[in-house]
Amino acid sequence: MDLSYLKSDNFFLLAGPCVIEGDEMAMQIAEKIKTITDKLAIPYVFKGSYRKANRSRVDSFTGIGDEKALKILRNVRETFNIPVITDIHESHEAQMAAEYVDILQIPAFLCRQTELLIAAAKTGRVVNIKKGQFLSPEAMQFAAQKVVDSGNNHVILTERGTMFGYSDLVVDFRGIPIMKNFGFPVVMDATHSLQQPNRSSGVSGGLPHLIETIAKAAIAAGVDGLFIETHPEPENAKSDGANMLPLHQLEDLLTKLVRIRKAI
Q: Residue 133: which CATH number?
């Protein structure tokens, strides 16, 4: 896959559950979102982590098994004829995951890991780099350049908020035009930017009622794509349920966002 699939008069969407919990759940979410995005002419990429490595507690859910989850991602891709994206955490995962998915995502807290970026780049897959919560938007040009210098020009940059104290994030929308000036598509992660990390319980909180606000502002600011984690029952999700959008609310939100996109 190259980036041509994502180019249209509309924004594109990276959306799905935080982590792959099982085949039935993944297929249900993918089918629902594909139906919505086809109707609204939004290029769609299914998102699902095959494994979660960055958990606060050792007893947190991390996945159903690497190969099993990756095969589910491939099944989604083949069933619905859509690209899929998953995140990787160590260099040796890059080639393994690339056999099953179209886009490799670099988590925000790993965006400066040179070996990881190079390994992702050398697979030839599109590389989506999430901006570190600790970085300025200007600093992301160097993360992207590591991928380009490794022979891969297929880069996406994703804004996901900046740390504001210990347990909150803020979004500086100036970062969208700044990162767009580097020449790569820019995505707004409208769910993780509302995360409330470092809670005393060891489970991150969130402000999902503000997802619409963040998404609307991002579209108005000229973002190329949106990243939204969604689940039929966020309260029962095995990871990051506190900041996910209920799946039944997605169509209404995307309909509003398409109108904003057309207006600008």
A: 3.20.20.70
